[in-house]
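Intended use. Records such as the Leucine rich repeat containing 34 entry shown here are meant for training and evaluating sequence-to-structure methods. They are not intended to support clinical decisions.
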Amino acid sequence: MQRSPQEARPESRTPPSDPSTTRTPAWAAADRSEAAEPIGGLQEYYYELCMEKSQEIKPFILHILQEVDEEIEKGLAGITLNVAGNCHLMPVERVTGEDFWILCRILKNNPYINGLDVRYNLIGDVGASYATELLQKNTTLKHLRMTGNKIENKGGMFFAAMLQINSSLEKLDLGDCDLGMQSVIAFATVLTQNQTIKGLNLNRPILYGEQEESTVHLGHMLKENQCLVELHVCKHDIKNCGMKQLCDALYLNRSLRYLDVSCNKITQDGMVCLADVLKKNTTLEVIDLSFNRIENAGANYLSDTLASHNRTLKALSVVSNNIEGEGLVALSQSMKTNPTLSNIYIWGNKFDEATCVAYSDLIHMGRLKSDNTDVEPFVVDGHVYLAEVSNGLKRHYYWTPGYGEACSPSSNAGLTLVPVGQYL
């Protein structure tokens, strides 16, 4: 039985929403029963729970659940429940902690849904506790995206504790969640033992101090963990010392295929370490160095290794790294002798005519496919220039395009090359 949003909206007062509060609301604590999901669709179950708890029924959530019900009726499995709060394609009411508690109740015993995307909503640390309770009981949920919900350090600690128990979750995105140093260290510690998580996003924690303590612990984790395939540590304030910590671990690690250290403070000295690792490491396939400052010297270190030693790296992003023509041309030359490197992203650096000609030649000779780079050559008055195109490793991580395919391979090449990161 399905009801329209107008019919479904109750007249009862909506409980106040306070994502920053850590105390579990009485109405949520009152019912911890293990009752199975009632016969009928998720949409009807959502309506009944909202009526029972005098919670506002949100048309956006009803609409999403109706779509999931239709997919279940078709016999589909492995469904992702997507209630992202930053969707621009339809009117969105952001999910609060109270809404999230109800969603967790709906998912608790559901065997059809293996992914939950609640990025950019109003879920705080209380909501994080609901999610971790769900993950301690639900063994079918494989990936969870919490991006942009301010669960802060306390919420991060809930998730770290959960990973000590859960043995089914494979992908977890806590990027831009205002995690603290304590929770980042807790994740690094737990992952020395957890053998299930394959993809982890810890982008942009709130860290203080200049000691790069987080990279020390992450490096130790990478030495011990041989299951993690993808790691995002964007905006961790990583400098060359921190990069060395990670590189030292990568000599021993045999599982990591995708390393994202974009938006940090890594310079040419950090590339000395990375270039040496790439001579020996045979598992890394995607490296994102965007928005650092490796300059010509750093690009030359990488190009020498890629030209003569490494034959496993498939994609490299050096977007906005203050690289000039010398370094960019060196990287283009390495592609002529390296048959494995298929994707390279260079926009935001300092192009001269030699750079434009070099990448134009790679594209026209077919060595670099137009979908595998973020530049496109054009000619004006006999001179070659490069224009930006909307391709990249994770172009649509923060936003959804208003038209076209949201997860196109050319715009999100990192997710295509390393499929475990599909929902990160």
